[in-house]
Fold this sequence. Notes:
Blueprint: E1 4-12, H1 28-33, E2 35-57, E3 60-67, E4 79-94, E5 109-122, E6 128-139, E7 144-149, E8 159-167, E9 170-179, H2 202-214, H3 217-228, H4 234-246, H5 250-259, H6 263-274, H7 278-283
Amino acid sequence: MKFVQVFSIVCLLSLPACSNIPNEPASTEDMTESSIEHSVGINASIDAKGLATPRKMNGMIVGYDITPSFPIAPKLGSGFGYTYTASVAVDMIKKDKASAKILVDMPRKVPVTIIVKHPEIISTDGAVTTESSWQDTLYFGRPNYVIWNFESESELVSGKWTVSVLEKGTEIVSQSFLVMNAPTKPAKITQVCSIDEAKYPRHLISQYQDCCMNDDASACYQFAWKGVERFKDTVGAILYYGRACELGDISGCRRAGQMSAGDNEAKWFNKGCDLRDFDSCIEVGRSLPN
């Protein structure tokens, strides 16, 4: 991601020649009246983002190892953020007819402000904040680290965190993170219509309830396809594809057969064939029933 900040500097010219302009002498009057506007921009890009592990030398932090992670798990003593590099771009525009040599003092570093927008953090005195900031230094030509470290229990809040770097009030680089504990995978399903609903996303629970309470064949198939199979629970997926099949969904019969083996495979394909599914009939060598 790249943001460019532009401002103008008026430089007084004091030398009479420039290597890329005809070398003609300029008068003192020309030099006094002449000026060149310099547009100086900061080009910045993120190199790595994610969990941040301090890299130490002689007990001192000399950098961070950034490991990609989604989401970011909030834990005391851990941190997250990014490393970025920045460079200066200069565009010089000559304003007068006299030739001149331009001297530009390129900065090696500039002060910046780090702003972190986060979910509500409630401090020990009851104050609520949704934004934190601190002063930092941007160094050109070398990695810069922007790291948030979880230092108190009150900071362990889930939600969207956005970490930005501003130079003179202008954002030059920014990155958002999702902070939350990754949900644990639900237990393997051993029988139909007996899951721990708290372990599944809300949209899947809606499908599950329609399947088990309303005998909705399509909902059974969707719950198996979008949820159980994606959790790599083969047995559980077959159970719900099978329920969809028993409720008249030929796609459920076909998928249950494809995921099964031996006698169970033939069982589901035969049920699909009974529902006049041509592909299922082929699998078990039958003709479409009349």
